[in-house]
Amino acid sequence: MTACGSGCVHGFYKNGKRAISIGDLILVLEGKPRSEIKEHLNAVNSDSSPSTATIKNCFNEFKRGLTTVFDDPHPGAPKTVTTEDKTTKIHDLVFLDRRLKVREVTETVSI
Q1: What is the distance between the alpha carbons of residues 104 and 86, in angstroms, rounded to a whole number?
Q2: Shortest CA distance to 65 belongs to which of 3, 2, 8?
Q3: What is the per-residue DSSP string for 61-94?
Q4: Are the beta carbons of 4 and 70 closer than 8 angstroms?
Q5: Would you state the pLDDT for residue 10?
């Protein structure tokens, strides 16, 4: 199964094969209440049907305009680059004085 960040499952798999997807479900059951969709999924995938809460989350996401199965980029600091030169400098510093503070290492190596 694949899922977006909100917990909406976009593909339901049974025995390694895709049985039904939310996109297919929206097209087939357009305008149907969640309870009918849950019944339909139980009939199609009785042993691996998603929970009612998952279906509710999916409906809410599609109402908000979800159009992709991929997560949005996550905020945060960009990834840093580790080079052999920096690693060697840090190793040598710690080898000489194991009581160095992180601040001292970052200032010395210019990280």
Answers
A1: 14
A2: 8
A3: HHHTT---SSPPPPPSPPPPP--HHHHHHHHHHH
A4: yes
A5: 47
pLDDT per residue as tens digits for the range 52-83: 787 777 777 767 776 555 566 767 766 677 78
* Tokens 């905020």 -> residue: 75
Q: Is 83 left (phi over 0), alpha (psi -120 to 50) or beta?
A: beta
Predicted structure pTM score? 0.39
Concatenate the DSSP letters of all residues of 28-62 into one string.
Answer: HTTT--HHHHHHHHHHH-TTTPPPHHHHHHHHHHH
The two structure tokens encoding residue 87: 């690693």
State in Å, rounded, how far the first CA of the chain is from the last one.
40
* Cα maximum dimension of the chain: 70
pLDDT tens, position by position, 22-40: 555 565 456 777 777 777 7
